[in-house]
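Morning. Coffee machine broken again, so started the prediction first thing and wrote up yesterday's gels while waiting. Chain of 416 residues, entered below exactly as on the submission form.
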Amino acid sequence: MTKNKSFLSPIVIIGMLFFIFGFITWLNGTLIPFLKIACELEYAEALLVTFAFYIAYVFLAIPSSFILTKVGFKNGMALGLVIMAIGAVVFVPAAQSRSFALFLTGLFIQGAGISLLQTASNPYISILGPIESAAQRISIMGVCNKIAGALSPLILGAIILDGASDIENQLKTSLASEKEILLNELAGRVIVPYIVMAIALLLLAFMIYKSSLPEIDTSKDESEAVQDASGKSIFQHVNLVLGILAIFCCVGVEVIAGDTIGQYGSSLGISLDVSKNFTSLTLVAMLVGYFVGIVAIPKYIPQNKALMYCGIIGVLFTIGIIFTAGFTSVAFVALLGLANSLMWPAIFPLAIKGLGKKTEFGSALLIMGIGGGAILPFFYGKIAESVGVQQAYLILIPCYLYILYFATIGHKKQTW
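Came back before lunch.
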């Protein structure tokens, strides 16, 4: 795997998986307004969509690292895809009963499957070549991820939110019996897409199982992963611990930008038929950032400098959201995608640098940081209900400032 010709097959396979991550992950931005209407939810309740999906990473990341040591890299990936397919199937009874709890269960199961895939794929692509250019390789994976992320809200939104504004108006004037029929019809729109998704995931799982993807060494046991022969705990690697919090902030701000922009547009009086596509704008902005990363890192700019610029841009664009109005303010939310684009690709390699044999377990801990995508958007929703959806974006500023700290000082720290 040290020769260029051996890179192509693994990169193509991991790229396919990152496409799947992106497609399923960024469906949440469409599911939030959809379930808010179909299950008659308050705004913060609707953001439990992201909570259920991302909290799975917190519970499953470390078990995922141990699953990979038992079944191997390739089989673990296939298993993750099967788990995601099960989560998609759960959407069928959830839609039939219009049960928000079942929808959340399906999302948690999908998050669990992606957690297994992420735990394997991120360290794999990081160590596929020199650590100094890891952000470049992860940026290539990010392009696959965000192309899928830009497409998924457009595709699912066209199916399940078609005529959503008209449905909202009808619900306001309908009798109880008519309202029930409308809501059941709306909820049923997700059944066919998620059945198709489940079949596609199972087919891809079979393809991965039969593929030529090379295995990686996952033979370390838990005690060796947590503590090396000299007795040094993994938590004494300061860059890793600070990196976990950086990932927490990174994913939190990324999810807030991508998954709240549609509802934010609606709150400003923009039709849901238009605002349902706003998540794709955020993903397009991220794509631009990823292409910059592919070209510039590490030839023109080191990955820590790229992360520093992302933190600064994030603060400036957040200020833009607060102090502008209408489509301009929405545009600043979308442009946060540019600030968010190179954060994950830069944080991950900076955080695992120097871990040696602990890299796999350290990567699992970093994957747990994805829980920021569960917790920070939920807090945003609660704040939004109190002070307004626009002012609630102020929660982003301390997150970006911490990422700026990690980029400039935190990743260099060797001791507490």
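The two ends are 35 Å apart (CA to CA). Going to sketch it on the whiteboard this afternoon.
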